């Protein structure tokens, strides 16, 4: 509730990363004319033919491809203002930023041990809100499993898989770079939960988690965060549910925070669902 207003405000900064062809509007042309002092010079700088550039600026061309706009942004060294500048400019500028961040992040990932890559990937996925909306591709059946598999093997295959969509490119950057402090806080909670597990068991957990439905993944996300919240060393006894015994033993978790985390929901039906999912994780 505390962050609800902030999250709503951030929705104004969601960009259309799927568009690749734009209307050559008056707004777009007027914006470009401000920076094109010479057709010839701009043509050379952006690697766009003089005739094509003229047709864009005088309106003879009715649509403009995203690739062309990116060439203009780079060639004219534009620094768009997301609040005021035309949407096609801002969208393509964001794509450039995402691509640059993606390839920089890949270089950093190459220097990380495979086990740590899995943790980074899992942490990022488990802490992102509205995954069906923000990660429509990666949250599909089989896609998260594939990403986990590839990030531990040849990084060239992982690069090919994650570079096909801006969604997955941005996700890769989030694996390495700091996100909003609230999201980073969620990451810390899940990281401590995963840190309890031996490396081999953590890998097995990651694969099993990826095979779950998205609704069941959310249940595990909540359980992992609550586990760390309740791991406070309280001096009282609470019985471990029979359904949790094998799960706790297999993944080397503590009994008390595991029990409290499984009972965090006020709804009995939801608690039963959490226990069912935890039993299935092996």
From TrEMBL:
Q: Which residues form the HTH cro/C1-type domain?
A: 46-83
Q: What is this protein called?
A: HTH cro/C1-type domain-containing protein
